Amino acid sequence: MTAAIPLIAIPGWAMDEAIFSGVQLPGMVTILSSDTMHFEERLLTRIAYLQAPKIDLLGFSMGGFLAQAFALKHPEKINRLFLAGIRSHYPDTAIIKRYLTKNKALYLEKFYTACLPSPPDATLNGLFSRYIIDWPIDALLQSLAYLAQARIQGDVKPPFETVLFHGKQDVIAPLSEAQTIAETLGSALHIFEEAGHLVVVDPDFCGTLARYRSNP
Hints:
Layout (H helix, E strand, L loop, with lengths): L6 E4 L18 E3 L7 H12 L4 E6 L1 H12 L4 E7 L8 H10 L1 H11 L7 H13 L2 H13 L11 E7 L7 H11 L2 E5 L12 H9 L3
Parallel strand pairs: 1-2, 1-3, 3-4, 4-5, 5-6
């Protein structure tokens, strides 16, 4: 039986709630935008709306930084923290900003292509095409500024379980960094052999997540 504890999922940079639309996340699920403006307040409001004593929190990519920062500040609200496709920090944000400012569409096209080890299916391809057109450059640069200073904290042992998920083919967030983070945190790390950065769309991801969700 799936746990009654709600799961709140946070997407990554240059992605929105729709990235989870084809993902069968287990249990009672709600998606929160990774917009960094007033993120903490928005997540607290969502938890209050759910009337849940505790939640499971899933952060993908940039969402992982937001999720961990919130969880460490509000540990009493966290049952489990799930981090997918994360790295310790992003050192190349200045370079990304330069390319993004020069040609947003070209950079985003290359970024989304790099998120998967093989060409996307029709649904993801359509979603990525919409992102390339619709994402405002100001919003992308704002979240990129957040990424420039974001760090995964490994020097604090939280009172909740942290679980990592990572694609072996990830060329955006190196697997070696996820392995170091997992070792530092004393966390389980699930490696998906055929997955890239967008590990949440791997066929085995939801089943692995469900095993944790069914055991609160």
